[in-house]
Amino acid sequence: MSDDIEAPMGQTLEKALESGAAAAPPAESEPGKGEAASAAAGAALTADSGSEINLDSLLDVPVTLSVEIGRSKLAIRDLVSLNQGSVIELDREVNEPLDLLVNGTLMARGEVVVVDGQFGLRLIDIVSPRERLKKLK
User: Fold this and answer.
1) Whether pLDDT at 43 is above 90
2) Which one of 26, 33, 76, 134 has the fewest beta carbons within 10 angstroms of its own beta carbon?
3) How far is 100 from 107, CA to CA, in rounded Å?
4) Which long-range contacts (CB under 8 A, 24 or more apart) does 59-64 make?
5) What does the alpha-carbon distance between residue 95 and residue 109 come to, in Å, rounded to a whole number?
6) Among 18-27, 51-60, 128-137, which is the least confidently predicted range?
7) Start and end residues for every CATH 2.30.330.10 domain found in the chain
8) Among the CATH numbers 2.60.120.20, 3.40.190.10, 2.60.40.2970, 2.30.330.10, which is that of 62-137?
Protein backbone atom coordinates (compact mmCIF):
# COMPACT_ATOMS: atom_id res chain seq x y z
CA MET A 1 0.00 0.00 0.00
CA SER A 2 1.02 3.56 -0.51
CA ASP A 3 2.38 5.70 2.31
CA ASP A 4 0.24 8.60 1.05
CA ILE A 5 -2.91 7.15 2.61
CA GLU A 6 -3.23 8.38 6.19
CA ALA A 7 -6.54 6.82 7.23
CA PRO A 8 -7.27 3.08 7.30
CA MET A 9 -9.11 1.88 4.21
CA GLY A 10 -12.36 1.12 6.09
CA GLN A 11 -12.52 4.68 7.45
CA THR A 12 -11.65 6.18 4.07
CA LEU A 13 -14.37 4.17 2.30
CA GLU A 14 -16.88 5.11 4.98
CA LYS A 15 -16.03 8.83 4.59
CA ALA A 16 -16.43 8.51 0.84
CA LEU A 17 -19.87 6.94 1.27
CA GLU A 18 -20.95 9.58 3.80
CA SER A 19 -19.85 12.46 1.58
CA GLY A 20 -21.66 10.93 -1.40
CA ALA A 21 -18.49 10.47 -3.44
CA ALA A 22 -19.19 8.26 -6.43
CA ALA A 23 -16.88 5.94 -8.28
CA ALA A 24 -15.08 7.58 -11.17
CA PRO A 25 -16.74 6.70 -14.48
CA PRO A 26 -14.71 4.50 -16.83
CA ALA A 27 -13.04 6.12 -19.84
CA GLU A 28 -15.17 4.08 -22.26
CA SER A 29 -17.65 1.29 -21.79
CA GLU A 30 -16.78 -2.10 -23.23
CA PRO A 31 -19.61 -3.79 -25.11
CA GLY A 32 -21.11 -6.78 -23.34
CA LYS A 33 -20.13 -5.68 -19.84
CA GLY A 34 -22.63 -4.41 -17.30
CA GLU A 35 -22.41 -0.92 -15.87
CA ALA A 36 -21.46 -2.29 -12.44
CA ALA A 37 -18.56 -4.32 -13.81
CA SER A 38 -17.10 -1.48 -15.85
CA ALA A 39 -17.59 1.02 -13.01
CA ALA A 40 -15.84 -1.33 -10.57
CA ALA A 41 -12.92 -1.82 -12.96
CA GLY A 42 -12.17 1.90 -13.07
CA ALA A 43 -13.23 2.75 -9.53
CA ALA A 44 -11.24 5.21 -7.46
CA LEU A 45 -12.50 6.90 -4.31
CA THR A 46 -11.33 10.27 -3.07
CA ALA A 47 -11.00 10.71 0.68
CA ASP A 48 -11.53 14.00 2.54
CA SER A 49 -7.75 14.44 2.72
CA GLY A 50 -7.64 14.56 -1.10
CA SER A 51 -5.72 11.29 -1.43
CA GLU A 52 -7.06 8.86 -4.00
CA ILE A 53 -7.56 5.14 -3.40
CA ASN A 54 -7.37 3.02 -6.52
CA LEU A 55 -9.45 -0.13 -6.02
CA ASP A 56 -8.13 -1.82 -9.19
CA SER A 57 -5.41 -3.59 -7.21
CA LEU A 58 -8.05 -5.25 -5.00
CA LEU A 59 -10.09 -6.75 -7.83
CA ASP A 60 -7.86 -9.87 -8.13
CA VAL A 61 -7.72 -10.63 -4.38
CA PRO A 62 -9.38 -14.01 -3.74
CA VAL A 63 -12.11 -14.19 -1.09
CA THR A 64 -13.97 -17.13 0.42
CA LEU A 65 -17.72 -17.30 -0.10
CA SER A 66 -19.81 -19.54 2.12
CA VAL A 67 -23.51 -20.11 2.57
CA GLU A 68 -24.87 -20.57 6.07
CA ILE A 69 -28.07 -22.57 6.42
CA GLY A 70 -28.39 -22.10 10.17
CA ARG A 71 -26.78 -22.34 13.59
CA SER A 72 -27.26 -24.28 16.79
CA LYS A 73 -25.67 -24.28 20.24
CA LEU A 74 -24.88 -27.57 21.94
CA ALA A 75 -23.22 -28.48 25.19
CA ILE A 76 -20.04 -30.48 24.70
CA ARG A 77 -21.81 -33.42 26.43
CA ASP A 78 -24.41 -33.41 23.62
CA LEU A 79 -21.80 -32.86 20.93
CA VAL A 80 -19.73 -35.91 21.86
CA SER A 81 -22.86 -38.07 22.00
CA LEU A 82 -23.72 -37.38 18.33
CA ASN A 83 -23.44 -40.30 15.96
CA GLN A 84 -24.43 -41.20 12.43
CA GLY A 85 -28.12 -40.47 11.92
CA SER A 86 -28.31 -37.82 14.66
CA VAL A 87 -30.37 -34.75 13.78
CA ILE A 88 -29.35 -31.25 14.87
CA GLU A 89 -32.10 -28.64 14.86
CA LEU A 90 -31.00 -25.30 13.37
CA ASP A 91 -32.28 -21.82 14.22
CA ARG A 92 -33.68 -21.10 10.74
CA GLU A 93 -37.10 -21.73 9.25
CA VAL A 94 -37.38 -23.82 6.07
CA ASN A 95 -38.46 -20.92 3.82
CA GLU A 96 -36.09 -18.31 5.28
CA PRO A 97 -33.33 -17.00 2.98
CA LEU A 98 -29.82 -18.35 3.56
CA ASP A 99 -26.88 -16.07 4.43
CA LEU A 100 -24.04 -15.48 1.96
CA LEU A 101 -20.84 -14.76 3.87
CA VAL A 102 -17.70 -13.33 2.28
CA ASN A 103 -14.67 -14.03 4.47
CA GLY A 104 -17.10 -14.52 7.36
CA THR A 105 -18.97 -11.21 6.83
CA LEU A 106 -22.65 -11.20 5.85
CA MET A 107 -22.98 -9.74 2.34
CA ALA A 108 -26.31 -11.03 1.02
CA ARG A 109 -29.20 -13.42 1.51
CA GLY A 110 -30.62 -15.79 -1.05
CA GLU A 111 -32.46 -18.97 -1.92
CA VAL A 112 -31.04 -22.31 -2.99
CA VAL A 113 -31.18 -23.21 -6.69
CA VAL A 114 -29.77 -26.09 -8.70
CA VAL A 115 -27.38 -25.20 -11.54
CA ASP A 116 -26.16 -28.07 -13.75
CA GLY A 117 -26.60 -30.56 -10.93
CA GLN A 118 -24.84 -28.38 -8.33
CA PHE A 119 -26.20 -26.14 -5.60
CA GLY A 120 -26.26 -22.41 -6.22
CA LEU A 121 -27.62 -19.34 -4.45
CA ARG A 122 -29.98 -16.84 -6.09
CA LEU A 123 -29.44 -13.53 -4.31
CA ILE A 124 -32.62 -11.85 -3.14
CA ASP A 125 -31.25 -9.25 -0.71
CA ILE A 126 -27.83 -7.58 -0.65
CA VAL A 127 -26.56 -5.90 2.51
CA SER A 128 -26.09 -2.16 1.96
CA PRO A 129 -22.51 -0.88 1.55
CA ARG A 130 -22.91 1.20 4.71
CA GLU A 131 -23.83 -1.90 6.76
CA ARG A 132 -20.93 -3.86 5.25
CA LEU A 133 -18.47 -1.11 6.19
CA LYS A 134 -19.77 -1.05 9.77
CA LYS A 135 -18.86 -4.73 10.07
CA LEU A 136 -15.29 -4.10 8.85
CA LYS A 137 -14.47 -2.01 11.93
Assistant:
1) no
2) 76
3) 6
4) 63/102, 63/103, 64/102, 64/103
5) 12
6) 18-27
7) 62-137
8) 2.30.330.10
